[in-house]
Amino acid sequence: MSDVLAAFLYGQLEKWREIQANRRAIWERYDAELADWAVANGVRRPVVPEHCEQAWHMYYLLMPSLEARTEFIARLKEKGVAAVFHYLPLHLSRFAESMEIGAWSKERKAECPVTEEVSVRIVRLPFYTSMTEEEQGRVVEEVKKLKL
Questions:
Q1: Residue 119 belongs to a domain with what CATH number?
Q2: Straight-line distance from the first to the last Cα atom of the chain, in angstroms, rounded to the nearest whole number
């Protein structure tokens, strides 16, 4: 690790508790304020089992379908809110398809139907440590205006 990167990380570690408190507040506000909207629109919110420690690193919604996710992202974008889809499953990446990984190869593709199904429905809401209450309030307001 370079000295500059180490210094940056050290600065973050010095403020770790403050950073985590801010991120937790953002996560919990999204969760509380979008609960009724999610139920009314068939959208799943994050589930954190009681025995797990939360990282507070993102807030996602699981849309009812790919079409709903696509429309959700597009309509928020029209309002200047940058919600994004979350990930491409590793086993579907060009890199993974070019490799023989674990128990599968080019001849025997990995089968991860749950991962694939979730990957086309998940969307991340804007989430960053310095997000203000006003910025988050605007995101929540625009999400609540949408009907899926």
A1: 3.90.1150.10
A2: 46
Q: How far apart are CA 119 and CA 74, in angstroms?
A: 17
* Residue 79 clears pLDDT 60, i.e. is over it: yes
How far apart are the C-alpha atoms of 80 and 77, rounded to whole Å? 5
37, 111, 137, 141 from 79: Cα distances, Å: 18, 38, 13, 11
| Rounded to 5°, angle at Cα 89 from 73 and 102 | 175
Domain that holds residue 19: 3-145
- Domain total of the chain: 1
What's the pLDDT score for residue 108?
Answer: 61
Give me the residues paired with residue 123 across strands: 61, 85
Residue 101 is given by DSSP the state B
From the number of C-beta atoms within 10 Å of its C-beta (0-12, 13-18, 19+), residue 97 rates as middle
Instruction: Encode pLDDT of 114-128 as tens digits.
Output: 988 999 999 999 999
Supply 142's token pair. 């625009």
Residues whose CB falls within 8 Å of the CB of residue 68, separated by 6 or more in sequence, listed in order: 121, 148
Q: Is the pLDDT of residue 129 over 70?
A: yes
